[in-house]
Design goal:
- There is one protein chain.
- The protein is an alpha+beta fold.
- Helices cover 47% and strands 18% of the residues.
- α3 runs antiparallel to α4, α3 crosses α5 and α4 crosses α5.
- It is elongated.
Length: 320
């Protein structure tokens, strides 16, 4: 029997404050370790080459570098969310990331030069960097590796978070029954229609079957699998290439767009209330109007969902 996961693991994907602290702490630790390691290596290299520099200079060089990288990481995170790297998008999005690595290096070099000039001036010294293009080529060889490792960390983290949060999928719909084949007529047989005879009546086309709506979803979370009922979904939120299903205080991700997924749900029960949100009408406890014309939907589980004025009238009409 599989041991239950620790409480913090179940809480981590849904606790934004806990996630933010862990993410900031991770990058801070990585950058500080990188700065300390590179400072020692640079100092050893300079000493071995016989170059005389003050002891604080390699430290200032590396701290200025990681300071700029720290400000660039949120931009890389946002850019990777826009141009997600996975098997189906690699060919289309990879050129954008190659271009982004050039911008990354340019901003990194300009930023750390500015910080070094300021640091040297504060200590009464003058910073004399090498030529821009010579330094840019050298830094790009390092920055393209740094950018790639950052992307790798983001993709790995998203994969881990998906496993912790749980990924849902629609259960496979049953195959439609095979249509019976029309009876064969032997030429010349009694009652058989000839090529010149018109059929007695034209059969009407069968009515289109009603759309099949999923009643349950399979959720995989770590090494566990369980089912959730469609009626237990309180609200839905668009999250990049996923839809977050909010069920009994937990969020499970389903690979789909919100617009496409709503076509599979009962339109008399699930309605869109925002560009990024949809709700189960049975799960709404209260509608709080706002001065802006928008509204806040208080759900029965205590959570709240924004409702824009564009969808507010339609929500009231559908709920009646």
């Amino acid at each position: 029997m599989t041991a239950p996961a620790p409480a913090w693991i179940d809480r981590y994907p849904h606790d934004r404050a806990l996630r933010r602290r862990a993410e900031v702490g991770f990058w801070a630790a990585v950058l500080l370790v990188q700065a300390a390691f590179n400072t020692v290596v640079t100092w050893i290299d300079l000493r071995g080459s016989g170059r005389s520099v003050a002891a604080w200079e390699p430290l200032l060089w590396e701290l200025s570098s990681v300071a700029v990288v720290a400000t660039l990481i949120p931009a890389v995170v946002a850019f990777e969310r826009r141009f997600v790297l996975r098997r189906g998008t690699l060919r289309r999005h990879l050129p954008w990331h190659v271009l982004a690595s050039v911008v990354y290096c340019t901003v990194h070099l300009a930023g750390m030069w500015a910080l070094r000039h300021a640091g040297y001036a504060a200590l009464g010294e003058h910073y004399q960097p090498p030529g821009w293009w010579t330094q840019w080529g050298y830094e790009y060889l390092k920055d393209v590796r740094s950018y790639t490792l950052t992307l790798g960390a983001l993709v790995s983290y998203r994969f881990l978070l998906l496993r912790l949060q749980g990924e849902a999928r629609v259960l496979d719909a049953p195959e439609p029954p095979a249509e019976p084949e029309p009876p064969l007529h032997t030429p010349g047989a009694p009652g058989a229609a000839t090529a010149t005879q018109a059929p007695a009546s034209t059969p009407q086309a069968p009515a289109a079957p009603p759309p099949q709506r999923p009643e349950r979803f399979l959720v995989r979370k770590l090494r566990r699998e369980f089912l959730i009922a469609a009626g237990d979904i309180a609200w839905l939120q668009a999250e990049a290439n996923y839809v977050g299903l909010h069920v009994n205080g937990h969020d499970y991700l389903l690979r789909s767009t919100l617009t496409d997924f709503l076509t599979q749900l009962d339109p008399t029960r699930f309605v869109r209330v925002h560009r990024s949100y949809a709700v189960n009408l049975d799960a709404i406890a209260e509608i709080e109007p706002l001065d802006s014309g928008d509204a806040r939907l208080v759900m029965k589980d205590g959570s709240s969902v924004p409702c824009s004025r564009r969808y507010r009238d339609g929500l009231v009409t559908t709920a009646r």
